[in-house]
Design goal:
Shape: elongated
Radius of gyration: 22 Å
CATH topology of the largest domain: Aspartate Aminotransferase, domain 1
Order of helices and strands: HEHEEEEHEHEEEHEEH
Number of helices: 6
Mean pLDDT: 91
Low-confidence stretches: 1-7
Number of domains: 2
Number of strands: 11
Strand content: 25-35%
Distance between the termini: 39 Å
Structural class: alpha+beta
């Protein structure tokens, strides 16, 4: 899910609540959202009708939301203020987050990975090779591998990390796909934008490609094909 505006409810909290989810427009309509062009609106009273939540979601899953006091008609700004456990503001916040979680569970789809390109590549691998990602490490539940069912060898691994582990000039969350490539080509490939010596794999034989649209899906899938061929041997 991507969030386009910091207005209303704390953008960081919403981002965490919807991390790894993408919107299903048809489910929004069934849930009760009304549509105006590419925007979907929902007004919902809660906390014994003392407060009103107004939630806006666009067709890409971008979301903004606000909460109003039904008596004063003012926005309830304490929603974003840290409060002591058990305080009134915390009760309102918890009740509101229950609404968001219900919308997430009923109107959004849980993706295997976080970034849009990562999920596209994962779907393409499944479509072409019939293999689904395996999540082998409970502690790293967002990291998955693809293996050749005949040889049991891995041919792709999707991991998340901080960008600085690939490029010290950059920072922030990133997902990468690790692929096995002809080792003679790797030095030249790693001069290309978005391609690095492999993260957490043998850098002599594997590369990491960032899944942030710097490398096209078509080119990534060409490298997936080469890596898959290695898993056949």
């Amino acid at each position: 899910m991507k969030n386009k505006s910091a207005a209303g409810y704390d953008i960081k909290v919403m981002k965490n609540l919807f991390k790894g989810y993408s919107v299903d427009i048809n489910k929004l309509k069934n849930y009760g959202f009304s549509q105006d062009k590419n925007l979907y609106y929902l007004e919902k009273d809660f906390y014994e009708n003392a407060f009103k939540a107004i939630i806006v979601i666009d067709s890409d899953g971008g979301m903004t939301s606000k909460v109003y006091d039904n008596e004063t008609k003012d926005e309830y700004l304490l929603l974003n203020v840290e409060s002591k456990a058990g305080g009134f503001a915390q009760e309102i916040k918890s009740a509101y987050e229950e609404i968001l979680l219900e919308i997430r569970d009923k109107c959004f789809i849980k993706n295997d990975f976080i970034l849009p390109q990562t999920n596209r590549i994962s779907s393409l691998i499944t479509e072409i090779y019939g293999d689904k990602p395996e999540f082998l490490w409970p502690k790293y539940s967002d990291c998955g591998i693809f293996r050749n069912p005949a040889s049991k060898k891995w041919y792709a691994g999707i991991l998340d990390t901080d960008y600085k582990n690939l490029n010290p000039k950059l920072s922030g969350f990133i997902e990468v796909i690790n692929l096995k490539i002809d080792h003679k080509k790797i030095p030249e490939l790693c001069k290309s934008k978005g391609i690095y010596p492999a993260y957490h794999m043998n850098k002599k034989y594997w590369i990491s490609i960032t899944l942030d649209e710097k490398v096209s899906d078509r080119l990534i899938m060409e490298y997936v094909s080469e890596s898959y061929e290695f898993s056949q041997k």
